[in-house]
Amino acid sequence: MKNNARMEHNGHHRQHFSYAEILHLIEPGSTVLDLGCGEGELLERLIRERGVRGRGVDIEERMIRTCISRGLSVFQGDLDEGLKDYTTNSYDYVILNHTLQVVHRPDLLLQEMLRVGRFGIVNFPNFAHILNRLQLFAGGRMPVNRHIPYEWYDTPNIHFCTRRDFEVLCREMGYEIIRIIDTRNGKRRAPFLCNLLSTEVCFLLRGTD
Amino acid sequence: MESHAPADESARQDGNSNDLGPIASGSQSATVPGSVGIVTPQDYTFGAPGKGITLEGGSEFGPITVRYETYGRLNADRSNAILIQHAFSGDAHAAGYHSAEDRHPGWWDNMVGPDKAFDTKRYFVICSNVLGGCRGTTGPGSINPETGRPYGLSFPVITIDDMVKVQRELIDHLGIERLYAVAGGSMGGMQALEWTVRYPERARSAIIMAATSRLSAQAIAFNAVGRNAIVSDEFWNGGDYYDGQPPARGLAIARMVGHITYLSEQAMGMKFGRRLQERANFGFDFEDQFQVESYLEYQSDKFVDRFDANSYIYLSKAMDYYDLGARFDGLERAVQNCNAKFLVVTFSSDWLYPPYQSKEVVFAMMRQGVDVSYVQLESPYGHDAFFLEIDRQAPLVSSFLEGLDEK
């Protein structure tokens, strides 16, 4: 059951956030660590289209195997164990692609990301999207919809947050928000009423020093 | 650490027949689908006096005969060769059968063959017995040409490094400049690692399974018990026993200790539990034999028939000595010139070569910008998992080998 959910989860984020958006955030030829890399599609595109040197981390054997068959370098590991074995500033970018909401301590992982990488790229589903609000408000139940296809008791997503929540966290932790990309159903949208209308958001962050 | 014995034995005892089906049934031999068929071991001798290899211990040693087998065909540009390095009690016979009547395939037969992980339709696979061994390559049981008698303890102390040097001589002899991959588990994994450090330009990739850059104190301690059992045997005679009875009991006990370390508590529980071998209830007469006891007896009896006690001492000591980081003033320095692309595989219940030790190597490589992938397979089988988790490890290995041509 849990595995099924995870697999769906990984299939799910492919539809919902355009990798092209992340691709454009990354300087060609840089180094990238992709946390929660899944089947390695993003990493493969980064290598092919942006000429990065990159590696992925994922917890699932099946994902790792797919990455390996793509010729990617991957590490099977648990992000909840942190990045203690990674040297400070050893990557230009550390990416957390649709994974923030599944880790135990998003704040600590964020801190580690911006220690290991000069820049952090984080995308996640915006829980404050109007559809979620309506379901919670009108139905009085946790939202289940195409963006959040899980029942509350069986979901990999243990830490939902809203676009605004994340902005506040970044500010509190002293990270510079360089860019925010708002999307709706995988397509970029104009930046108005973002916390209400964006289904998914992507932050480009820089650490304090 | 294991060889043929546990792979087919475990499969038999578990009733777990998946890839081992034809082996377990023993119904056919050379005609088994996916088998490399009948193979003939070959020997290569080099190192006449003055032209031997310089051992890590400082002395020069030769002549050396290497026993090896090959499977598949070397392609025209000699770029598809894979060297498989065997574990402690393994040998050159990695796959196939030695005759039409032979019922026991090589020790990694479920990984090496047509359409298997090391696909012999694509790759030319080589496996040689290690220096110091007793399965065809020069070791303490070989005849010293100077004296006409077996070396015994006059055989020089050898190391993992020395084993690899001998392999390089063989690879040179076969006319292969750069291997497509080196691959091994346990002591074989140590050799694969050593190969990539010592000869960075001579392997495109390395597959290192259930291995470490250095044994833990606990692992050394178990090896020490094994060696003590051997040297305490009344027939050991300072290693000079080749004219008479071998120290079989000592070697058998050493093997029993070894076997305990290759399995996990859970694996033993699953396989044997507390069941008795021949009785339903205790007789309280010391005649009761638990299944696990009978397994150890059986395994060790088989082992003493094919293994030399002195080789046990030399090879186990070689593993104990191995400490890649110490030799280079740190693991990171050791791996900094590595050019190969690595796949490191560990097994969650392996307490002899625990995953954290492999991870130390992996992180050192990552910090040095070496191209490395790491997989930790959840498995209950302990160290022996690399003989048993074929269904999961085979696709990893084959996709890694295929992935080399990606990008």
Task: Give the proportion of residues in helices of chain B.
Answer: 25-40%
**Whole-angstrom Rg of chain A:** 16 Å
The rounded distance between the terminal residues' Cα atoms of chain A is 43 Å
Q: How many H/I helices of chain B?
A: 14
The SSE string of chain A, one letter per element, is HHEHEHEEHEHHEEHE
Helix proportion of residues of chain A, in percent? 25-40%
Give the class-level CATH name of chain B.
Answer: Alpha Beta
Named CATH architecture of chain A = 3-Layer(aba) Sandwich
Shape of chain B: globular
Per CATH, the superfamily of chain B is Alpha/Beta hydrolase fold, catalytic domain
The structural domain count of chain A equals 1
Largest β sheet strand count, sense and barrel closure of chain B: 8 strands, mixed
**Widest sheet of chain A: strand order?**
3-2-1-4-5-8-6-7
Q: Please report the first level of CATH classification, the CATH class of chain A.
A: Alpha Beta
- Give a count of the beta strands of chain A, DSSP E runs of length 2 or more: 8
Low-confidence stretches of chain B: 1-30
Largest interface: A-B, 22 and 27 residues
